[in-house]
Design a protein that fits this description.
The structure holds 2 protein chains of 2 kinds.
Chain A (H helix, E strand, L loop, with lengths): L2 H5 L6 H18 L3 H16 L10 E7 L2 E7 L12
Antiparallel strand pairs in A: 1-2
Chain B lengths: L3 E6 L7 H14 L4 E5 L7 H5 L9 H5 L5 H4 L1 E2 L6 E4 L12 H11 L5 E5 L6 H7 L4 E6 L3 H16 L6 E7 L1 H5 L6 H8 L2 E7 L2 H9 L10 H13 L14 H9 L6
Parallel strand pairs in B: 1-5, 1-6, 2-4, 2-5, 6-7, 7-8
Antiparallel strand pairs in B: 3-4
Classes of the chains: A alpha+beta, B alpha/beta.
Chain lengths: 88, 267
């Protein structure tokens, strides 16, 4: 590997690339949830939840997590600060 | 005797289903088990040539199913191992010539007289695959440490679970320890983490497999070769023996660990 490759961060081994790519591909294969579908799911979730409570749409994070062959959808939705002080 | 029916499948073609079926059948039969292997790849049969039995075919799987011969008439007995039999696939028909029920009936007829029935599944997830897993008691999925084969293995493992034939067990075939060592091939742990299945065996890349194929004389006949020894270890695991894998606690690098597994009589 040349000095320039190292400086430019091109020292990743191809097996790590394979693993990272497979991780994503398998999530989509197993759930039939494409990145596009996940995006529209996100948009609709924001719209629905916003009808009830004010949320921070930029902080919203949706992920597919897996434990063995079991998968679950995890949504982390930060609420907007209302400015009200917590009673002591 | 009540044979155990084991289906060898992969999703992707060319990863080594037929080679594995032939070698596991040879290994089991040479340990004294009575083994029948069935080529379910109708239209693209190859188990006969890999086993070196292509010149002895008279009847095939479709002849049995359509009643042109009795089951025993289509079974080719290996001359090298008298406990090894092959039921060849038909070459001029397609997968629809046999149904999943036909396969179940055929295996039930064989079960009382043998220890193992190995079914060599065709590639794909269609009729041939469903024919192959219908009678199986356990499913072995073969993959290679490469992106497309692992992806297809995942799909097959999911389908096997959906058919309630799981959990599937995995064989990683054609592993090159030196490529893994320099980070250019998926390691065993990577594949197992991605697929979340139990490992049945690891078969290293070995030129002798191709040479054995040239002669129709599977490497499991010769216990000295790396791949031959690997297949014999897998056969022992199929018989319920505990044959140790890599000692992951040992810190002597992957190559050392892998070579250690394939030492005859040992790992």
């Amino acid at each position: 590997m040349s000095f320039f490759d190292r400086v430019l961060g091109r020292n990743r081994k191809s097996a790590s690339d394979a693993k990272e790519r497979l991780k994503l591909v398998l999530i989509h294969d197993r759930t039939d949830l494409t990145p596009g579908k996940l995006d529209s799911l996100k948009d609709e979730l924001i719209a629905v939840i916003s009808r009830y409570v004010e949320i921070d749409p930029l902080g919203l994070n949706i992920q597919v997590e897996h434990n063995g062959r079991e998968q679950r959808l995890i949504a982390d939705i930060p609420l907007k600060q209302t400015g009200r002080k917590r009673p002591r | 005797m009540a044979a155990k029916v084991i289906t060898i499948t992969s999703g992707k073609g060319g990863v080594g289903k037929t080679t594995a079926t032939a070698n596991l059948a040879v290994a089991l039969a040479s340990m004294g088990d009575k083994v029948v292997c069935i080529d379910a790849d109708i239209g693209l049969r190859n188990l006969d040539v890999v086993l070196g039995l292509e010149n002895r075919i008279v009847y095939d799987l479709v002849d049995i199913v359509e009643g042109r011969c009795r089951l025993r008439q289509a079974m080719i007995r290996d001359k090298r191992l008298s406990d090894l039999y092959l039921i060849p696939a038909a070459q001029t028909r397609d997968k629809t010539a046999v149904s999943p029920n036909d396969m179940v009936r055929l295996c039930n007829e064989l079960r009382p007289d043998y220890h193992f029935i190995l079914i060599d599944s065709p590639a794909g997830i269609e009729r041939g695959f469903r024919n192959s897993i219908a009678p199986s008691d356990s499913v072995v999925v073969i993959t290679n440490p490469e992106v497309s084969a692992v992806r297809d293995a995942d799909r097959i493992i999911g389908l096997v679970e959906a058919e309630e034939k799981g959990p599937a067990q995995l064989i990683i075939n054609r592993l090159k320890p030196e490529m893994v060592k320099r980070g250019d091939m998926l390691a065993i742990d990577d594949v197992l983490e991605l697929l979340a299945v139990d490992l049945l065996g690891i078969v290293p890349e070995d030129d002798q497999v191709l040479m054995a194929g040239n002669r129709g004389n599977p490497v499991a006949f010769d216990s000295k070769g790396l791949a031959g020894q690997a297949f014999r270890n897998i056969a022992r695991r199929l018989k319920g023996e505990q044959v140790p894998f890599i000692d992951l606690a040992k810190n002597d690098g992957l190559f050392g660990r892998i070579t250690r597994i394939f030492r005859p009589g040992g790992y």
